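re: ur question from yesterday

yeah so i grabbed the chain u mentioned. its 232 aa long if i counted rite. heres the sequnce exactly as i have it in my notes:
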Amino acid sequence: MKKGYIYSDQKSLFGSRDVVGFSNGKLYVKEIDRNTANDVIEKNHYSHKYYNLSYIHLGVYINDNMVGVLQYGYAMNPASGGSVVEGTGNKQYLELNRMWLSDIAPRNSESMAISCSIKYIKNKYPIVKWIQSFADERCGGFGIVYQACSFSYYGEHTSSFWELDGETFHNSIKTSRVAGPRGFDLLNDPANADRVKKYDLRQFRYIKFIDQRWKKKCLLEEKEYPKHYNND
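ran it thru and got these structure tokens back, copy pasting raw so excuse formatting
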């Protein structure tokens, strides 16, 4: 596929075709329906969970074969954007909620897919000023894929997770039924107490400013990139 934006087959009510994806000439991302994206994430992502607040769903394709999925949407607290970048409204930022690429995808495909998705978002959702993502300690590298995409790094924090029968839940689900009714019930059921395990993980915050003017409004301190791997 040629490099550039991918357009819908049909014209919109305004007489032009909608942007539905972007290609860098080697791979491309393209809109897919929520159910398809959720199914892929459930089967393949290390969490085996999709995120309910995702609203942008993109398939990743090489030679017209789907090799991955990216899902963007709100943070766990949708109104938290303003506490990261001053003046941010709910629709003015995105979080990369889920990303999975097959092992058959060639090297650097993750960074290429993210870059293509950002170009798509910049055109399709001009209201979005910045994108946030967290690299999880479970992935091995401390965000090298975001470093390759020129995200800015804003430090790390530790989050608590709970595991039950191989399924992982964020701490918010154990403490609030609203965050995840099924998980809340499972984790707090006395019958499961002996099988529930808690562990803490480092998470590394990265932000990509689509509109560079917003970077000066960031309330966090930018830091040097962490080393890719912990050799201790």
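noticed a couple things. The longest strand covers residues 152-164. also The helical segments are 34-44, 81-84, 109-124, 144-148, 171-175, 181-187.
anyway ttyl
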